[in-house]
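Hello Y.,

Per our agreement to keep a running log of every chain we model this quarter, I'm adding this entry. I've kept the format consistent with earlier entries: sequence first, then predicted structure.
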Amino acid sequence: MVTPQGTRPGVRLTARGAIALVFAVTLVSQLAGSTTVVGLAFGAACLAAVLLVQPRDLLSLVVTPPLVFFAATLTSAVAGALGAPSLVQALGLGLVTALSAGAPWLFAGSALVLAVAWFRGLPANVRELRDELRAGRSPAAPGAAAPAGAKRDVPVFAPEPEGYFEPRVYGSPREPQS
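Predicted structure for the entry above:
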């Protein structure tokens, strides 16, 4: 695919691909490194993800770093607690320790994603979502008066006519054979 300027577009990920990238990098770093290594890897993965994601998927990516960090930390804590005499105690202690040690990195990575996404077009995605939500609202109740100066929302769809899901018979009925 060639763009109008004659250059080839760079690699673009979907939101799922970018989230998987952040999860994989964070999980591998948690299984292999210290808190600083985990934080730097998480921050680098967040930066790479927000730079490589398709602009229309920015909103989906912006809200996921805390969940991805938690999921990677939980997976790492479960893997670390498997050989312990008390699985629940080791899992709880490992999870609380890793989350509290990684909290500053989590906030930094989330802020980094938000800042870069803002300049890549996040406000346009938010406006588009807001417009879609407004367009999908049902109108006010038939007897309710609209506030002064407010426009009434018009539904985007029309309800199906009665019998919409009933099977239709095409053609004329067959004559009984004798």
